[in-house]
Amino acid sequence: MAEADESILNKGLEGIVVATSEICKIDGANGKLYYRGYSIGDLANGSYEETSYLLIYGRLPNRKELSEFSATLVRERELPKHIVDILMALPNDTNSMEALRTCVSALGHGARDPREVSLEEQTRMGIALVAKFPTIVAYNYRLRNGQQIVAPNPRLGHAANFLYMLFGKEPDQLDARAMDMDFILHAEHSFNASTFATRVTVSTLSDIYSAFTTGIGTLKGPLHGGAALEVSLMLEKIGSPDKVDGYVREVLSGHGRVMGYGHRVYKTYDPRARVLNNMALEISQKRGDMRYYEIAQKLEGIMAGEKNLYPNVDFYSGIVYHHLGMPADINTPIFAIARASGWVAHCVEQYKNNRLIRPLDQYIGPLDLKYTKIDDR
Ligand code: ACO
After folding, report:
1. Could you list the residue range(s) of the whole structural domain that residue 111 is in?
2. Using one digit for the tens of pLDDT, what is the confidence trace for 318-332?
3. How close is the Cα of 253 to the center of ligand 1, in Å?
């Protein structure tokens, strides 16, 4: 191996290609996104189950395969008793990302050495986690709000069942479709921070539960999945379209960040935001409440003009969540629920063609300092 050149610094790994992958292509310059070669705009019309199958197995399922895969997800939704006990024992101020991180870690207690587990079995374990994420989030939400948990409904698909377990009633068709579409659009995004974190974990030949736990912890931050929560809070704070101008100028003059804007890879409109913009419009019209959508439109115009920055996926999803009646602290867990199938695909790809991920740093501290005994310091 050639000697590494430590003088070349790429802070935040920006612009560094670390692996080949067959899962996802982001065309940041042209605002395009493909899962396994299929455009996100086309996949958004299907179901999360179909997209998950595609991501995990690398091809679109036929009807029988989709129905078997969906049945597996339904079968795996239930939580073992010890996980429900853990959820009940968590302090009331535990938010759903924290609960998810704890429960996924606990599900992995006693996990077998990945070197003794076939890729098929790794995939099955990953799919079981995809199935359990919504149950953990919904149970945690209801418990910490003093409500009875609502068991999964086997007649409902992944997205509709999540809304059912969260709110205790079956969603109508538009709400279920909005949730499904949002899951599809958040399911995968190449080497984003949380997915990369799962791959780093797997690259040490650690288990998939540990990888998912790492992923959840990484997704939680406000510069990644946490932005969805910040967008909802921001829309609430702005309150009406006439307040947008003042709000943006105040944030920008303080060198702050307008949440839901900008992206490390997209330098134009995030294609997921485009699809969600249409859904946000449809659901706002159906509810007869255009306030947040109008705020969003105004914000978009100002950000494009002032900063040449465009909405990312979290921006319009904030409006969709508002109309779904989603509590703001569930926004980031929704992202985790959706991204779980992307994580399965990446963990398996990393196991398949592994190389320990171990970058270098550029050391800027002193060298050859004189060591003195503790009593002489
Ligand atoms: N609001 C205001 N200014 C911004 C924003 C924003 N949302 N995003 C970037 N900028 C500005 C920066 O201030 C900087 O300006 P400067 O050069 O004058 O200092 C310039 O754009 C470049 O910003 P960087 O931070 O270098 O860009 P980076 O690629 O690291 O940022 C990031 C990407 C972190 C997503 C950033 O755009 C941001 O903080 N956005 C808000 C948080 C957010 O929405 N995160 C969700 C990301 S999508 C996702 O995880 C699904």
Report:
1. 24-222+328-352
2. 999 999 999 988 999
3. 15
